[in-house]
């Protein structure tokens, strides 16, 4: 059975005090209210990783995530953060290839592939993001575009490695816009990704990989999206900044 995951990407939000409060609230709510086997990930900004991990403590279902990494282990790379550094403060998951990293920081296919390799080599779990723009979808090129991202950024991995990757499909046109892909659109793209994985690695491997939906998931639409057979959870942006909203999304899964 595929792992069910809800990951909260806090992006560049919160300060030290409010980050600690949010982490504490989420952890306590999960302990008190979540009885199903859902993996919960919180990915705060780098300065708040250690304090968030302290709040997580021994919470069995809650894990620490990072929003990015650099593919080298150490060296003269001012401003960057390596996988060994992340691992040393308790990080388990690392978000890679997010559309904002691609758009604002110019991350290319080769860079993202290198980061995937570095995270896997360090024993951490990549949450690899892929997705199309509104222009690409309106041109009806979305399936080919996203399949091509996998070809260039993941398909150098062997079957054992790819099974350790979590994929997050994020329609760029539905991130922070209030627009959401319909449950049917989400299922269509998740099935496309799983079928593309199956062509390369076989159906057994493809069916073992968790594919999350990321694009304006909220408490009032989460259950309908998560009910689709190829949707294994969500990568949550804005709603992860409010503990009750985030918890209701977790409970929907």
UniProtKB/TrEMBL annotation:
Fill in the subunit field for this protein. Homodimer.
Its protein name is Triosephosphate isomerase
Task: Please list every transmembrane segment annotated in the UniProt record, as residue ranges.
Answer: none
EC number(s): the record gives 5.3.1.1
GO biological processes = gluconeogenesis; glyceraldehyde-3-phosphate biosynthetic process; glycerol catabolic process; glycolytic process
Q: Which InterPro entries does the record cross-reference, listed alphabetically?
A: Aldolase_TIM, TIM_sf, TrioseP_Isoase_bac/euk, Triosephosphate_isomerase, Triosephosphate_isomerase_AS
Looking up Pfam families in the UniProt record yields: TIM
Keyword Phosphoprotein on entry: no
What family, per the record? Belongs to the triosephosphate isomerase family.
Q: Which NCBIfam families match?
A: tim
């Amino acid at each position: 059975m595929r792992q069910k995951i809800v990951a909260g990407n806090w992006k560049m939000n919160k300060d030290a005090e409010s980050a600690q409060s949010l982490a504490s609230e989420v952890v306590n709510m999960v302990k008190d209210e979540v009885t199903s086997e859902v993996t919960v990930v919180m990915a705060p900004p780098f300065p708040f990783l250690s304090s968030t991990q302290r709040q997580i403590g021994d919470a069995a279902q809650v894990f620490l995530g990072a929003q990015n990494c650099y593919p080298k282990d150490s060296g003269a790379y001012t401003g960057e953060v390596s996988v060994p550094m992340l691992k040393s403060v308790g990080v388990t998951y690392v978000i890679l290839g997010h559309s904002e990293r691609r758009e604002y920081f110019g991350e290319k296919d080769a860079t993202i592939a290198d980061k995937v390799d570095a995270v896997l080599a360090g024993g951490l779990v990549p949450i690899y993001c892929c997705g199309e723009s509104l222009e690409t979808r309106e041109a009806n090129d979305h399936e080919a575009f996203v399949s091509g991202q996998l070809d260039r950024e993941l398909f150098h991995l062997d079957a054992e490695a790819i099974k350790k990757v979590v994929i997050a499909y994020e329609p760029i046109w539905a991130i922070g816009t209030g627009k959401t892909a319909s449950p049917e659109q989400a299922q269509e793209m998740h099935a496309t990704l799983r079928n593309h994985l199956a062509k390369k690695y076989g159906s057994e491997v493809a069916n073992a990989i968790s594919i999350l939906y990321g694009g304006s998931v909220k408490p009032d639409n989460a259950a309908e999206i998560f009910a689709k057979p190829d949707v294994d959870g969500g990568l949550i942006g804005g709603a992860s900044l409010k503990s009750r909203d985030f918890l209701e999304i977790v409970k929907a899964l």
